[in-house]
Amino acid sequence: MHDSQPATTSYRLRIWANGIEEEWSVPLDGNDANALWDEAAVTACDMIRDIKFGGMRPDLDWHFEVCDPAGTVISRFSFRAERLA
């Protein structure tokens, strides 16, 4: 007998800080590229907005990547803070 539930595609939002994947990377359900893009964009904006005064340090380098079930990056948002002088 076949399972009557549709297969779900498991995408992942991987969050990298200075080259290290953060433990709070999260699974994403669905396969709508626009919805996955929107969720990654909102998450990136929320995290940057939540940095408190003094928490934004020079050389902060974040990447927010949406990966498909095979691990291929399908979209990426990047944020880098630099002190130039």
UniProtKB/TrEMBL annotation:
**Taxonomically, which superkingdom?**
Bacteria
Which intervals hold domain DUF6894? 32-79
Q: Which Pfam families match?
A: DUF6894
This chain belongs to the protein called DUF6894 domain-containing protein
Give the organism the record lists.
Bradyrhizobium cytisi
Q: What is the lineage of its organism?
A: Bacteria, Pseudomonadati, Pseudomonadota, Alphaproteobacteria, Hyphomicrobiales
